[in-house]
Write a structure and sequence with these properties.
There is one protein chain. The protein is α/β, with parallel strands linked by helices. It has 2 domains: about 240 residues, no CATH class; about 110 residues, no CATH class. The protein is built from 13 helices and 6 strands. Strands 1, 2, 3, 4, 5 and 6 form a 6-stranded mixed β-sheet that branches. Helix 3 links the parallel strand 1 and strand 2.
Amino acid sequence: MKGSYSQTKAMFAITKASLKAIFRSPSAVVFSIAFPLVFILVFGFVGSGGKVSVNIAFDSKTDTTNPIYTSIKRIAGITVVKKTGVELQEDLEKGRITAIVLIRKTGLTNPLYTIDLTSSEAVNPQNIQVLQSILNAVIAGINQQQFANTPTVAAISKTVQKIPGRVYRTIDFILPGQLGFSLLSSGVFGVAFLFFNLRQQLVLKRFYATPIRRGYIVLGEALSRVIFQMLTAIIIILVGHFAFHFTLVHGVETFLDIMLLSFLSLLLFMGFGFIVSSIAKTESTIPPFANIITLPQFLLAGTFFSIEAFPSWLQPICKILPLTHFNNAMRNIAFEGASLTSCWQDIGILGIWTVVVYSIAFKTFKWE
């Protein structure tokens, strides 16, 4: 007597065959592995410099009645963070702010005030130099306008007090963006071309002649894409960590959190691919539809540079994009040691996107 037909074995057979096809596809390997690795290698060899971002906080003991304090708050290039206590200390240790600024009276006439800076090892030294240059320019301007008869209204302490902190390297910013680039490219382009070709080549129709159910066909093909992309994520993270010291704060625990985040994000991005494969009439129309989804995210979601570099009117749009929240969550997990639960806002927005995208995908997906 013959055994019953196994839907699970049939699904895994489809997964195995599809996985072999993916590894044999030059475009899949290039866009998912080679291209992100090239960027990681380039920025990894550039060095440990990072983006210039001047965020400061004023010490609670700062004299707020002096003209220096007022002038600093008016400078567009400086963002004043209004935090105190433990929360401010954590931001400084993690490199979120450049320095804590203390302006105090000296009791003398020259200078009237001194400015002390407290920073951390996690802050890019270039950012501290930029801040010092801005402060010197502020002092020079006030001297010229209000204190022409005195040598200087204030002096900046030559010694910058530094507290311990993790060194923030370029790779800590670049690698999460490149992993997101790989996941989004594979999820949208890979799935779109895969299911469009399966319909066009009548492969799905041939599957109908077998006892396997439609849901298992989709699961088998999707599982192959997930396995391939998770392997890609492992390669990208390990190369970044061991070759360029990409930060994994809690080691294996952080790595596993990143892999789970990547898995959840990949499921979302694959939903976009299902939609594109359904609305495309010909194979040549897939790239334009896919680029409408991917290109804005590559450019605006903090993949290559911080969204703070964009005009203020554009930043709310950047913060809507799902890739932005993947990049934010991964950087917080990898460098700052955040847990998945503490990144609930970013993950929650990814979850909302997933529900919306798959609701559209289920309505638009075509079998023939």
